Every structure is written in C-alpha cells, then in structure tokens.
Amino acid sequence: MSLTINALTRGDQGKGVSRRLRRNHKIPAIVYGTDKAPSNITLDIFEITHLLENEESYTSVLDLMVDKKKEAVIIKDLQRHPAKNIVTHVDFLRINLKQAIVTSIPLHFNNEEDNEAIRLGAVLNQFVTSVEVSCLPTDLPHAIDVDISNLAMGEHISLTGLNIPKGVVITALTHGDIEAYDQSVVAVQEPKKMAEIEEEASVVAEDTDDENTENSDTDKDKLDS
User: Whole-prediction pTM value?
Assistant: First the structure.
C-alpha cells in the first residue's frame, strides 16, 4: 500500500511566513534531491500528523503530490516544537527508484518475555536502536527484527549477527575491516550489584571534586598574579 502526502508550492519564505502558516494549520517543508532544484512547499498539519502516526511512514517511499504532480520521496528530517511536540518542518528527499539510498532503519527487539535469563533477573542492554543501511527503495525494510529469546547470560548479538533482508547492506560493514566496525547491538548481562553502582558513583563524584579543586586553584593563581 502506497502512502501519499499532499503539498502546495510555497513562494514566500522567512520566520514571519512560517508563523503565519502555522496559525492557519499549515507547516513549511522542502523537497530536494535527484539533481533537481530544491522546492519549498506547504503541508497540512493534520494530514502530516496523521501520516506520522504510522511508524512505517518514516521508512517508506512516499508519493508526494505537489500541485497534483507526483514525486517519490522519503522523509529525511523532521523538526518538532520543543515543548508541544508538534511537527514544525519536514525535509523530503527525492529518490530514484532504480538507485540505492542510504537511510536509518529501527531495530525491533522481540521475544524478551521468552528469554529465560531475563526472567531470572538478567538485564537486556540495547546498545544500538537503529542501523544505517543501503538498498534500493523497493527493498527498504520498515524495521529489522532482532530475536533475543535464546540469548543466554553474557551473550550478545553484533551487527553481523542481525538477520538482514536480501538486497539490504549495513553501511558500517562496508568499510573493509568488518571486525573493527562489527559493534555489539544487544546483550544479556548480569545486573550490577548496588555496591558496584555506589562505588562507580563515588569515583565519578571524586573526579568531579578534584576537577573543581584544580579549576579553583588555577583561578586563584590567576588572581594572585
């Protein structure tokens, strides 16, 4: 099922114009890429908000209808109001369906409730929540599933251990030295004891006090000189 978002060409620019648009339930956006000139456009706030309620919108090829002309795009960047979490600006990237694109895909960690070690008190540490991939737009996955049901205490899954769909490549593993870039994604580990946590906190506090004392002595020396 294709996802469609409608837009209108926007001529005026500037903060004043953007504020005026938002008062009328519109938001500014831009579309660029494929060697075409960037185009400033306007979106309906209710339509884009509804579209973004579908998680797949972030990793799907969208049909952007600009003045009734269709372009294939992906969402490249979003800006939101810091307090209201309302979308305030969208960047769309035009794509060529026959050329590979590079984008980030979320990781979905599944079957935690079936992991025996976690049921017995182990901790699941997620080091990576998304990975950058390269693929044709038609091969773009909405997410990469990571099954952790059989992960034992002390075991981990690295980038090379992910089940990647056919036609999709993790960009970090294309630099030649795979071992150097094959980072851990998720691990099942023994929970830290309270004494260890308190000891680490104490070390951090001591380091901070030493740094503050050193800075204070430096400032005093400057005043004395």
Answer: 0.73
